[in-house]
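Support case: user asked for a sample of complex input and structure output to validate their parser. Sending the pair below.
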Amino acid sequence: MKILSEKAALNLAAVRKKKPLIHNITNYVVMNYTANTLLAMGASPVMAHALNEVEEMVSFAGALVLNIGTLNNDWIASMIKAGKKASVSKIPIILDPVGAGATSLRTIAAKQIIQETRVSVIRGNASEILSLRRKDSKTKGVDSIHSVEAAVQPAKILAGELETVLAVTGPIDVVTDGQQQIRVSNGHALMGYVTGTGCAATATIGAFLSVDENPVSATATALAYFGWAGEVAAKNASAPGSFMIAMLDALYTITPEELKENCKFGD
Amino acid sequence: MKILSEKAALNLAAVRKKKPLIHNITNYVVMNYTANTLLAMGASPVMAHALNEVEEMVSFAGALVLNIGTLNNDWIASMIKAGKKASVSKIPIILDPVGAGATSLRTIAAKQIIQETRVSVIRGNASEILSLRRKDSKTKGVDSIHSVEAAVQPAKILAGELETVLAVTGPIDVVTDGQQQIRVSNGHALMGYVTGTGCAATATIGAFLSVDENPVSATATALAYFGWAGEVAAKNASAPGSFMIAMLDALYTITPEELKENCKFGD
Amino acid sequence: MKILSEKAALNLAAVRKKKPLIHNITNYVVMNYTANTLLAMGASPVMAHALNEVEEMVSFAGALVLNIGTLNNDWIASMIKAGKKASVSKIPIILDPVGAGATSLRTIAAKQIIQETRVSVIRGNASEILSLRRKDSKTKGVDSIHSVEAAVQPAKILAGELETVLAVTGPIDVVTDGQQQIRVSNGHALMGYVTGTGCAATATIGAFLSVDENPVSATATALAYFGWAGEVAAKNASAPGSFMIAMLDALYTITPEELKENCKFGD
């Protein structure tokens, strides 16, 4: 796991150096926090969703982030159009299936995006990830009703079937491509009290995918970085408002060296 | 009023214990702050507005929050569809008529929602509440041009006519169901310098409605809690940016016991 | 330039006194921060974009802010409708051509707004401003790939052609109406790490336009005020999250007298 910690440092340094454009088609609730997360780490965010714009915008991008919160049919169409363009242009796509399992619209949309585009990574909570597999899975709103542990084995199987990397996040994150499996235990409980931390983690994976061709290491290192930012924030803040702000500060101030020392990876 | 202070403590404890899902169809400006407000107090927010999703989403919810800021026709249709479903399912609805009185679109939409769904509570500033009654009432944008005091008597009559609870908020809040009338004097002037504090107060009432069947006590106690959070925030912050963050912190750190001691209710 | 510094103080005092309603049709990412910026300085923000509402809303406004981030065709139509109404009603319009040059949709929309409405001021980064002139100009996302200096002469010519005031912002801002040229060197590098600071600067110009009939002085003084708020914020914050919040605080606490002493204008 020492190699992976070194990779985390390299990836963070590369994001800061290359300042990749990350194209986000994401939900209204988290757009601002996602953009600030990407800026704080040194990336260059853009939000664009118009059907007659997304192909052009994604063509400049280092990664495409698709997030199905506050979804409607127009946005699904734009996500698929942008995703198809990204797929043929070999631009990595990361999908955040917010609320999949809670409503048919979201579950079907997530599955459609997976089917019609080349998704490199899917990040969600246990319920969301499980909903991509089981027809009978039910989620309460956008919060998980399943534990990460309950999702590990099904996720491993599903990752193999979908030929993609799955990141099941929670108190401990699990990243798997169906064969490998990496646990990331960086993070802090206050992250669950700030809206959009999951979505911002997804965008962080997007930034790391733009500088690391291996989606497993890109995902695991991004989650370690984002989780470590939460731990750093918790040293300075003990309630959600100040914690949310301290996380943006931490994403900016954490050095690659410091990240390397603090990654918590396991099998 | 001691009973009401005790009820405030019970309601806050119940929200933290039950973590009710609060379904918000609200405006773009305040979505993030509203979600963070609900998370900070211990509730579980979800934002969903698609016509083909709202009925399914609201069916899991403890309350439905309808807010007509940044409105358009599609959103009105979704609000009414969700509201009708909530009405038949006995899920409490709270309406925030942002900018009613300022434009015909908003005034008509607010009245239509009131007519077609079973709204438990309406929270607005004096101008917004008055606009639901008088055709000639004019508001400047989304800020009130009427005093709370000027709205008390008309609100009492209107609440009776509409068979709903009205909360007219401002320096002092007045809650009435047409018969009872409760004043809540918790709050701080800096709340007027942060966008979405009114909308977040509405969402807070939504959370309290999900644990308290009496809409008068749910509304009054929610406003006392939200206002007290403003007072706590003002101890640590003297300008709007840090105040906005300190409010989220306060919503998280205030204990039921502390709330009980600090509610400011009157007739 | 001493007269201009005095004008800055007068404009800020006038905004706080008149509390002008500023109607924003702006992008999803920055709506919250823009509204908070306007509230913190003492103005009254409203966001409204529905085609069947914008004419009525803008008729009460002191200025109309059009911002083309997260654009689509419906929003373009609303911007033009609101802009036409503002034009005939002599309500000043300020345009923020976010991402113009990056995609055809945005470049064409910006040019269309300029052609069909009476825009008083356009604020953008160098790439965005240059894209309004040259067909071959290319921008990477929403961040500038041109220096302010490279844009000064073309901007001067373009301002004359369009008969509007152009503000090219970056490390140093340049304001020109084709004849006059004012440099504003207030500001701080951390502003580039917070999403929507450019858009919030545009809204600030909108507020100042509502109290100052001279678009050159309104624009230059607004940028000095906003930039000085950045400098004040940087005294209390050294990373983007806390800086973003400290800026809102500074916009609220800066006095007209303090602003007058700290404006950095040049030729």
